[in-house]
Amino acid sequence: MLFTAKLSDMPVEAESRVIIRFQDCDPLMHLNNSKYFDYFFNAREDQVSKLYGFSFEAMFRELRTSWVVYQHQIAYVRPARISEWVRITSRVIYYNEDTMVTEYFMTNDLRTELKTVLWTTSKHINVTTGQRVPHVQEIMDYLGATCVPGVDFQHLHFNDRIHAIKQELAQGASA
């Protein structure tokens, strides 16, 4: 069993609160561009473990499969600064038989300022052969339960999504 949470209990969005570490910053006291990936991926690993009871290691061990990164799209909207508390949100916005697109975004602690948006496209592979393989039914059910509804990824432009996230944040701030 890859997931301990019930499908009906799985939220589509996960959020973490983290502090920007001195060691990850450049001389201008901004989070180094390459470190955003570490913050996003570490947050997602913690989030899916906590919310869904999922372990990447269990998928590797039990199914002999994993997801590998195929492509990234990232926008650095505003810098994250040394010692700043930020919020990292992650969510699946698209999937098919062997592909998953995870959307990440970072905001300030109050969720009023967008800092970064990342789309990561991952392919599901057999770890022995390195070849793409279809998701098993348990994974398809998980992706179906956790994919953000109403996102037409096939016709969505990255910059339009950045604008939509900014609008979400503005609406949340005024509520």
TrEMBL record:
Entries under Gene3D superfamilies matching the protein: Hotdog Thioesterase
Recorded superkingdom: Bacteria
Listed Pfam families: 4HBT_2
Protein name: Acyl-CoA thioester hydrolase
Phylogenetic classification of the source organism: Bacteria, Pseudomonadati, Bacteroidota, Cytophagia, Cytophagales
